[in-house]
Design a protein that fits this description.
With 458 residues, the chain is of the alpha+beta class. Helices cover 35% and strands 20% of the residues. The strands form five sheets. It has a seven-stranded antiparallel beta sheet, sandwiched between helices. A five-stranded antiparallel beta sheet has the order 5-6-10-8-9. α8 packs across α10 (286-299). Bound molecules: flavin-adenine dinucleotide. Flavin-adenine dinucleotide (FAD) binds at residues 32-33, 67-75, 78-79, 90, 110, 132-134, 138-139, 141-143, 145-146, 148-150, 198-199, 203-204, 325, 413-414, 450.
Length: 458
């Protein structure tokens, strides 16, 4: 519990209306898109970096834990306030501060939605590449916290490859700046360290990102397969042929059915798998490249490869893919999202084994994922009224162990949070983990910033 005089102090910093303390209001912030829940003692909406600094100084003095929150769409328990304390909600710090088109940079506050930055840039012929499927609501701060990926990250790289500099409030309330607009900065790459740290080093209050010019030509295709393995082999073969599409997304039969019913994107309901393949770049050579991709699909027994005829058709294909997580809800009242990654040449055998895990546990598993990155997102369907959640979590852990056994990782892009803390030992030794823990202590010796996340709890 937070003392009444501390609440008053916090209200004096941000204004009475920006501090929530009633049970009803706090319940709205006890969850994210994972299965964990924990009630915060207060939720605070700062509007400036100075507010964040003062809130954190107060929390530090009183030894109150605090958790940064964007939109709470992360899938690993990252913004669940497991020890209570303060949720610092950054949605009111939502300004695009600068578009420096000449130098291919943008400066934003953490509460800006990823899609708002994309759309603002698109009007001017530029774009910001990391595009999580949740981009309509995922905030720039949250994507920095999770080092988010997305369909276009296959070609362009994930969030860390686009963050040039950060302003961050340390857990003692000091404000630091690291990196900047230049390509190479002297000293340690602290921005690189902070991206993906899930709010455990402090609260990011300003982000400088790299932006890109829109490609001259885009070609989007839907390749239709009779088997999941043929689709997975195609992914591997396209890249092995030296072709780097902007995206290579896969959906299995379960997902196709749900998405088609919801988005009417034109996906074939009788196919076992589809790939959305997007090529982008110069006009010159694009036809030749797309013919080559079609040949590789055909070599892997693709039933059909449809090329989107215009922007409207392309848009429809993407609406289908980007609404897949939502559409899956039609298949069952609950689902648990796994997130692992394997070298893409091992995708076909891994997918086969994921199907087997589903059969062993008698759980339905739908697959939709950024296949080009080797990312897997098996969605385990269940009904919390009738299924033991521990069985679901156990199946999820088995999938992560499978990824680890294939030289993969236990998180492709959704972070570790609470959910995958124990899985960290599948891929890191105690020495590896201790170096990371010591890093946390450098930034946060009192362990107040998003405590108990990322590391196994002994
Ligand atoms: C339907 C759906 C589709 C998704 N698709 C993708 C996808 O394609 N790719 C992908 O990578 N993820 C995806 N996600 C997961 C999620 O959307 C991303 O992790 C996203 O980056 C989270 O953004 P958020 O604003 O919701 O952050 P939150 O969930 O609020 O926070 C995420 C983490 O970042 C920390 N954090 C938030 N703001 C700050 C800040 N200002 N400073 C420091 N730390 C901060 C939080 O403490 C937490 O640990 C998807 C989720 C859903 C529900």
């Amino acid at each position: 519990m937070i003392k009444e005089e501390t609440i008053t102090e916090l209200k004096n910093i941000v204004g009475e209306g920006n501090v929530l303390t009633s049970t009803l209001e706090r319940i709205l912030y006890e969850y994210d898109a994972s299965v964990d829940r924990a009630l915060p003692d207060a939720v605070i909406f700062p509007t400036t970096t100075e507010h964040v600094s003062q809130i954190v100084k107060t929390a530090n003095r009183e030894k109150i834990p605090f958790v940064a929150r964007g939109s709470g769409t992360n899938l690993s328990g990252g913004s669940v306030p497991i020890r209570g304390g303060i949720v610092i909600e950054l949605s009111k710090m939502n300004q695009i501060l600068e578009l420096d088109l000449e130098n291919f940079r943008a400066v934003v506050q953490p509460g800006v939605f990823n899609l708002d930055l994309y759309n603002t840039l698109a009007e001017r012929g530029y774009f910001y590449a990391p595009d999580p499927s949740s981009q309509m609501v995922a905030t720039m701060g949250g994507t920095v916290g999770e080092n988010a990926g997305g369909p276009h990250c296959l070609k362009y790289g994930v969030t860390t490859n686009h963050v040039m500099g950060l302003e961050m409030v340390l857990p003692n309330g000091e404000v630091i700046e690291t990196g900047g607009k230049s390509l190479d900065m002297p000293g340690y790459d602290l921005a690189g360290l902070i991206v993906g740290s899930e709010g455990t080093f402090g609260i990011v209050t300003k982000i400088i990102v790299r932006i890109l010019k829109m490609p001259e030509e885009v070609k989007t295709m839907l390749a239709i397969f009779e088997s999941l393995e043929d689709a997975a082999q195609t992914v591997s073969d396209i890249i092995a042929a030296g072709i780097l599409p902007a995206t290579l997304e896969m959906m299995d039969k379960f997902t196709i059915g749900a998405v088609e019913n919801f988005a009417k994107a034109g996906y074939p309901l009788d196919a076992e798998a589809v790939l959305i393949i997007e090529l982008d770049g110069l006009k010159d050579g694009m036809e030749r490249l797309s013919r080559r991709v079609v040949q590789i699909c055909q070599k892997n027994s693709a039933r059909d490869v449809r090329v989107a005829k215009d922007d409207a058709e392309r848009e429809r294909l993407w609406i289908g893919r980007k609404s897949a997580f939502g559409a899956i809800a039609q298949l069952g009242p609950n689902y648990f999202v796994c997130d692992g990654v394997v070298p893409r040449s091992k995708l076909p055998e891994t997918l086969r084994q994921v199907v087997k895990i589903g059969e062993d546990y008698e759980l339905r598993i739908a697959n939709v994922f950024h296949a080009g990155d080797g990312n897997l997102h098996p969605l385990i369907l269940y009904d919390e009224r009738t299924t033991d959640i521990n069985k679901v979590l156990k199946a999820g852990m088995e999938i992560l162990a499978l990824c680890a056994s294939k030289d993969g990782m236990v998180s492709g892009e959704h972070g570790v949070g609470l959910e995958k803390r124990d899985a960290m030992r599948m891929v890191y030794s105690e020495d590896d983990l201790n170096v990371m823990k010591r890093m946390k202590m450098v930034f946060d010796p009192d362990n107040l910033a998003n405590p108990d996340k990322i590391f196994p709890q002994d």
